[in-house]
Design goal:
Elements (H helix, E strand, L loop, with lengths): L10 H11 L8 E3 L1 H7 L2 E5 L11 H10 L2 H5 L2 E4 L3 H13 L3 E6 L4 H9 L3 E5 L2 H13 L3 E2 L6 H17 L5 E5 L4 H13 L4 E7 L4 H8 L22 H10 L2 E5 L1 H15 L5 H13 L8 E5 L7 H11 L2
Parallel strand pairs: 2-10, 3-4, 3-6, 4-5, 7-8, 7-10, 8-9
Antiparallel strand pairs: 1-2
Helix pairs in contact: 1-3, 1-8, 3-5, 3-8, 5-6, 8-9, 9-11, 12-13
Length: about 325
Amino acid sequence: MHSPSAGAVTLARIEAAATRIAPYVLRTPLLPSRALSELLGVRVSLKYEFLQETASFKPRGAFNKLLSLTPAQRERGLVAVSGGNHGKAVAFAASRLGLRARIVMFQSTAPSAVAAARAYGAEVELLPTPAEGFARAEALEREGLTYVHPFDDPEVVAGQGTLGLELIADAPDVTDIIASIGGGGMIGGVALAARALRPEVRVWGVETEGADAMSQALAAGKVVPLPAITSLAATLGAPAVCALTMELVQRHVEEVLVVPDHGAVADLLWILDHCHLLVEPAAACTLSAARRLAGRLDPAAHLVIILCGASISLAELAGFRERVGL
């Protein structure tokens, strides 16, 4: 599958996506955080993106892609591959639009995510690894299903980028944005939108150790497949990024930081204790990155942290704590 050029994603395309998906997604709030402002020493606001249906930002891209399909593409049915959040989003969007969806997930996928995709009416198939999952989805595409890729698609990236439009509208004085990276679709779309509207904004990415496909690609100057996903932040576990998202990050993102699982879980607990929000490790790792960046931010900065997802159960939280020794 040939990855599109980053030039395929434009501000105009993101603005068109915002109009298209408005009836189907939540315009999530952006609220100040006193606790995080005191911790980090700068003004901090949080983008509550986990309030979307399915508990992540992913419905933005899923709806934009599905609403852009031709009637023939819709009729063939859909296939998506996902560590959790994208699959749930495609299942949800398909359900709302009356389409058939087949979701390929992994044996490491949280049981709650598998159950949610099935509850939306999708057929779910579990495979041992992400690499096998992507290969299976591509095989099903060759059999005739319409493939909804989680990030290697301009319509999906444009849909995720609508988050950036909202962020700038609600925080026009933002100086810095921190966003998580899985395959790079969300940070690519957000960074393009935010910097098109406010060029001086700095966008910072964060990955966890063992799910650092973007960092490895940037270091190598080319897409690098990961031999395995070892991070417990499974929703960041893309086996590789793509040329599209890598180029968007190269153009629009200041730096990508990589943090350990232990820090992500510790900051998940900090956010729960001090902000009274339960988010997944893929979202909590943004605080780990913010701690590292605090000394590099101007005291007058306005930092916006995107809390991208809350696909977590209490049982999963207990398992995370046990794995990292907290």
